[in-house]
Amino acid sequence: MPTLAIAKASNLSFSPSYIPVAVFAGGTSGVGQAMAEAFARQTDGRAHIILVGRNASAAASTLAGFPKPKGADGWAHEFVECDATSMASVRAMCAGLRGRLTHINFLVMTAGANSMVECGETAEGLDHHLSIRYYSRYTYVKELVTLLGAARDKGQDARVISVLGAGFGMTIATDDLGLEKARRGTIGFLKGAMLSFAALKGMVRGVAYNDGMLAHFAAQHPDLAFTHIHPGQVDTPGAVLYMGWLLSARMDDCAQYMLYGLFDGARGLFIRNQHGDVVSAHICQSDHAAQVDAKSSIAHKAGVLHGVPMKGYGGSDTTVKMLVEYTERVLGVIECFASQISGSGRVVTKMRKLLGSSVARASNEIRTWRAGRSPLASNSKASMTITTGPK
After folding, report:
1. What's the distance, CA 42 to chain centroid?
2. Contact criterion met (CB below 8 Å) for 207 and 81
3. Cα separations (Å) of 240 from 61, 112, 370?
């Protein structure tokens, strides 16, 4: 386990010759904000830092505290507004970045939903916890991975890190993937008044799904680095249970450990603990699909990726495949109805009906819709506030 001093010393060695582009989804508060601030200090502000979130005033305060390099070109510090509970908003934000950036070096995802009593549903029909802890993160990676690949093509760093709950080896349960049944089982008048099984499930499932999500993208893009890391108990405004100063890490200290994990490892999948240590890692081969036998018993074994045991990893080749297929189906249906979603019960009911149909039928309807309309058709637009920089 690296000490805080070792982590800081290692981070100080990060001094790229290029101006790094770093996107912090959830960078307006908590660990994400602390990581963005530490990254800005580490680069002396000589970076293109993009904070993504909902709180413009908090972002403005954070950006104002970043060091501003003198006599340097290419740097910029900005805020992009995005609602992580809305996949339409996330897609629109990502489309905006793709339209003006040539590459991204670091994609940092920290936004979370941590309520143990609330188990709501978004306007798009998603579990509220999963929308932030999983679906939005999946969408960020899917929509921005080409820009990360462009950074790797330039010979630069290209890394993704998801800060959530790595290392516990939580298995991916394939029943009730979207937690609709769990939410229906919650007694209405008790919502928000006591511990909710559905809310706890949303938190736990989000952790397991992140393992599967990053394993999937690491296999699809073996030249990039994908890390799932556990921040530990941190003294943040969003902490579920405050354990006191003795048991909770300071946000600044946590940020140093998280950056230590971000800067380490050029490619592959990494499961890391709260000190940035590697719990397990695996580099996928470019022909990984040919190496995976879906019918073999090992493909169904949790904690094994492409035949390789991974400590602290909860997925199996079979459950990851099922999760990704379900996720693509859900996001595809939401995309189809994006222009109609405004809390309309009838629209959400129609979406659920399509999700409940066969995979083939749902996929066919999604393909038909995409053939006739722009996949980004939506009433949701990401608003943007650009703060400083000579770019």
Report:
1. 23
2. no
3. 25, 11, 40
Structure tokens at 18: 């290029």
Query: Which pLDDT score is estimated for 337?
Result: 72
Q: Is 304 left (phi over 0), alpha (psi -120 to 50) or beta?
A: beta
- Residue 311 CA to its chain's centroid (Å): 21
Distances from the Cα of 368 to the Cα of 358, 364, 371, angstroms = 15, 6, 5
Interacting residues of 72 by C-beta distance below 8 A, sequence separation 6+: 19, 46, 390
Residues 102 and 144: their CA atoms lie apart, in Å, by: 11
What is the separation of C-alpha 272 from the centre of its chain, rounded to a whole number of angstroms?
15
First-to-last C-alpha distance (Å) of the chain: 40
Q: SS3 sequence, 295-317?
A: CCHHHHCCCEECCEECCCCCCCH
Cα 270 from Cα 42, distance rounded (Å): 23
Rounded (5°) CA angle 224-228-232: 150
- Report how far residue 151's alpha carbon sits from residue 164's, in angstroms, rounded to the nearest whole number: 25
**DSSP E strands: which ranges in the chain?**
21-25, 48-53, 76-81, 106-109, 159-163, 225-229, 268-272, 278-282, 304-305, 308-309, 384-388
Percentages (nearest 5) of helix, strand, coil residues in the chain: 45, 15, 45
The partner residues of 161 in beta bridges, in order of sequence, read 108, 227
Pairing of strands 278-282, 268-272: antiparallel
Tell me 18's DSSP state: S
Give every CB contact of residue 371 below 8 A, 6+ residues apart in sequence.
Answer: none
Domains, the chain, with CATH or none: 4-329+380-388 (3.40.50.720)
Q: Which helix (H) or strand (E) is 87 found in, with range?
A: helix 87-100
192-234 tens-digit pLDDT: 444 566 677 777 899 999 999 999 999 999 999 999 999 998 7
pLDDT tens digits, residue range 348-365?
556 666 665 555 555 566
Cα–Cα dist 125/301, whole Å: 31
More confident: 350 or 379: 350
